Amino acid sequence: MKVVQFTIPVSRESTIVVQEETLPHYYPHLHRHREVQIEWVVEGSGILVAGNYMQRFESGDIYIIGANQSHIFKNDESYFNPDEPRQIHSVSIFFDPNYLSQNILSLPEMANIRKFVHGVHNGFQIPEEAREAVQKIISEIIQHKESQRVASFIKLLYQFSTTRDLKPLATSNSEQVISEVEGIRMDRIFQYLVTNYKRHISLAEISEIANLTPQAFCRYFKKHTDKTFVSFLNEVRINEACKIILSGKFDSFSDICYQTGFDHVTNFNRVFKKTTGMSPGEYQKGFRDI
């Protein structure tokens, strides 16, 4: 299977493809497809990487992935442990934005929706306050067939086009032109980092994984993620730290520091606040107060 270019089984008799799945885990490799993807994580958790965006995803989250936007929903380690049987439940809706624009969205009444669809390139996360309304419409799409399904789908696009505070999933379009060979290399880099983040990873080590010199790797990684290797690795570690804090299964913040690959508590606290805007203690208190 090609790692980057992923083919969605789009039927010529359907405007959209709806997939509701219950699986042990998400497809664990960086990939892309020409269709826009609307993803409702009904059940599951892990790290989403889309373009130069990276953040934890949790049950209930809803995302819009842009056409040809490289992405990966990387589940937590426990999903791959046979001694801890877990599963994900997801609803995915795929549509070809070009086909839609040439047909249904060509109507003058669809101008605002058409404008929204044309601006999806970098993807979005749906804000929490809009989730319930979006989930209700997606449930209608699942239940309906043929013309009723299309009507509900247009209703969903209208909901998106009128929703405030959509959070972009990336700040640059440059990574979308990534070649398949580069995509395979980037996937290899991501897989190595998310598997080995708990220990020290040197620049020389990760450069060897990418089959590049350290200097070339730094330029390459920055070009495709708009982040330095160290900042990306720290984000992986802080996302894992946030998961541990929310679970409540830890003795002290220093324990979390060493569990997530940091070698000094002071550095952990500094990076945590820079990444989340809060200290570990403030982050914990914020979720206790919800």
Describe the structure in your own words:
The chain is of the alpha+beta class. It folds into two domains: 16-168, Sandwich (Jelly Rolls); 197-288, Arc Repressor Mutant, subunit A (Orthogonal Bundle). It contains eleven helices and nine strands. The protein has a six-stranded antiparallel beta sheet. Strands 4-3-6 form a three-stranded antiparallel beta sheet, covered by helices on one side. The radius of gyration is 20 Å and the shape is globular. GO terms for molecular function: DNA-binding transcription factor activity; sequence-specific DNA binding.
Give a brief outline of the structure.
The protein has 290 residues and is of the alpha+beta class.
SSE topology sketch:
Elements: E1 16-23, E2 36-43, E3 46-50, E4 53-57, E5 62-65, E6 71-75, E7 88-95, H1 97-102, H2 111-118, E8 124-125, H3 128-143, H4 146-161, E9 167-168, H5 180-196, H6 203-209, H7 214-225, H8 229-247, H9 253-259, H10 265-276, H11 280-288
Antiparallel strand pairs: 1-7, 2-5, 2-7, 3-4, 3-6, 5-8, 8-9
Helix pairs in contact: 2-4, 3-4, 6-7
